Amino acid sequence: MIEVKDLSKKFDELVVLDHVSFTVPEAKLVVILGPSGTGKTVLLKSLIGLSTLDEGEVFIDGQSVQKADRREIYELRKKIGFVFQGAALFDSMNVRENVALPLVEHSSASVREIREKVAKILEIVGLPGKETLYPRSLSGGMKRLVSIGRALSLDPKYLFYDEPTTGLDPVMKDRIVKLIGNLKKDYRKSGVVVTHDLETAQAIGDVLYMLKNGRIARLDKIGKEYYG
Amino acid sequence: MNLFSSITDYTGFLIRSVFIPWRLSKTRSIILDQVFDVGIRSLPLILVIATFVGLVSTVQTLYQIVGSGTVPKYILGYTVGRMVLIELGPVLTALMVSGRCASSMAAEIGTMRVTEQIDALEAMAVDPYRFLCLPRIIGTFIALPILSIIAEFDALLCGAVYANYFLGVPFSVFNYGLIHFFFARDFFGGLIKSLFFSVVIATSGCYFGFRVKGGAREVGNAATRAVVTASILVLILDFLVALIVFS
Asked: Chain B contacts of A85, Cβ < 8 Å?
């Protein structure tokens, strides 16, 4: 379980997070909605210590992210797969190398085992046989799928998605929404999704929050507060 | 940022990049890539530069010293040899590698910064300093002294050939001056310089790449700052090493 307690963050005078608290239960997807520029990405990154906080603490399976030293935080991050908004694939590596990177770095698996695992992951995300392609020859949606594949490679307990469907065509968006749903249902991956897309939030979220003006509120009636 | 805090930040960055677990089993292949990139890919440029350094040094030395007729011709080999081994070989090689590699390191890492690839490494529990900076520093540390030796050999060879065919100084005379007055200290002093230069070249490239915030314009600025800083540091270190080794 992930517990987020009283997170606060300011950029100069701009309050981005104002005592934000929520919990991510086991095998559930928490969706945080909010207009662009409200600090959703800052919030998501702060959950794994990529953004520093002014106040507050995040506990992943009971361990504080903010109090962890470098070694401990790297151990915590192995439990989490992070899907970046722009995919953040390494241009100099092909799809196989991108997906395999966490395995190469953190496992003692042989080259053959890693290849097999990558092939399996690419099947899960719907990109079988694309191992040798480079990011420059992939569409935005395919990059996002590879990024999800890379996030899955260490078989993490949690998955964090930063705007997973933004800027995609309806077909690809639907594909990614289904994939996120399947990962939760079939592989019991808990996680946090930040998005400004209400449709995506409705489709995949178990618990919905809205972040606006630094404050977070749980949405009981989906969409009402967002558009209100 | 004032000069003192910049130096502190730069030094802290170097320490953070080097004094970490190297995990050579995982990092070795990236280091080899960097040796290839800095060494092999810079080689054509270095050979061109070294060729002309050898030719110009020979012509200038003959004109200024030997041309008067009062100095024996073997002084040409002696002077060109020491000039190339102590100064021109290591320094010009380092300046060329600064221009080619420090800028590309800063641009590459800066682009990785703005496209969240460095954040992605962090998110995957991969230390970006070990993954990006350490291999570049070690790779340059290995490649630059080798490039310097090749440049020195090339410059001396071209100088000797030119002197033989165009200036009337036979190989045997040139070599006599070169070998008879060869001091190991000159050669190793040049190598020591190269080792220092390699660290500041790679560190400048990585440091300014890591510090990029913003977009394409900042990436370009980072590349420029990396080259300027590396070049200035090369010249400062050249002076300091010369003070220690040759004074």
From this structure: 116
